[in-house]
Amino acid sequence: MNTRSSQDCPCCGTVAELFFDGGQLPVNSTTLMRSRPAALAEPRGRLRLCVCPGCGFLFNSAFDPARIRMDTDLEETQGFSPTFVRFHEALAADLVRRHRLRGRRIVEIGCGKGEFLALLARMAMGSGHGFDPAFVPGRAGPGQDRIRVEPILFGSAEADRVRGDLFVCKMTLEHIQYPPDFLDLIGRAARASGNAPLVLMVPETLVILDRLQVWDLYYEHCSNFTPGSLARLFRAHGLAPTVLRTAFDGHYLIIEAMPDAAGAITALDLPEEKPQQVVDAARRFGDAARLRLDGWRDRMERWGQAGRKVVLWGSGSRATALANMVGLDDRVQAVVDINPHRRGSYVAGTGHPVVGPADLAEIRPDVVVVMNPVYRDEIAALLRQQGLSPVLEAV
Ligand SMILES: [Zn+2]
Question: Which fold is adopted by the domain 301-394?
Fold first, then answer.
């Protein structure tokens, strides 16, 4: 039984401050909704974001892990975008080179469909051992013959039995309600593997707050980190950070650490902000977020009144958040995604249909709202190929 009160920080126990109430949002924003009724019936949970003045950690105090489904319908991959694939390849090549992974064993916790693990194993000419309940065999791409994935969560038994030369955990820690417990598990496995390095990647929340990216906050992202709060948590659990940096236009925060601090380089690339800086940023965000959402509501209203056809591009969590927080209804015709596995599905909570780029020839949108500006050029090129020239608006 959890005895912590809802506003105590899960990382350090300090009483935290509520700064943003995002209302009721779908609890599983990346799960594929196979029908419109199922999408509309998706359970909702409250996004109640708190910031900790003790360590700078941000968390959803209304989060209930029992409501999250972890199954193969989770469609989180971004591997269909050339921009994302280039990012992944550069990240893998850098890790293989710096950690001298040639012929080595790589462990990835929360490996999704296994694409990154297969890429690492292939580049290293080594092997990969992955863990993910949402794993689907056969979708890891080149190098998948070098990996073995167990479709389970990484728990205490796994920490005791799994050994590797590098432990990777990308886009997973933000889904864990009590990050310290999870970090202890990975740290234990890395320590037992002979001081193997760890690499973790999470969304960079200070950037989300500063850029007012309201749609990057989700119910299921119960744990949100900034550079300082992540580095502090690692140190508090006996893990010495050796690399702290952002990537992908500031969206991702990457930390590398060693279980044994001896010899670890402690001069990091990224400044570690103080907890009070996060509190200040969170308060500013809380004040401005509502205005930002109202601005999008007004814009959609104006486009609707002018009879303009609007589509969103990108059907992941961001589109789900925007559609639900703004309440888009029939002001948006459809949501476009280049991932063919998402086509024919529906946006959780609002029921907008997910279509492929080829379907736009028929819809002929006047406005395309780009959910991630990083993909703007890629999207513009795809639209040009189809002879379409809608207005592109990035969120
Ligand atoms: Zn804290």
Answer: Rossmann fold (3.40.50)
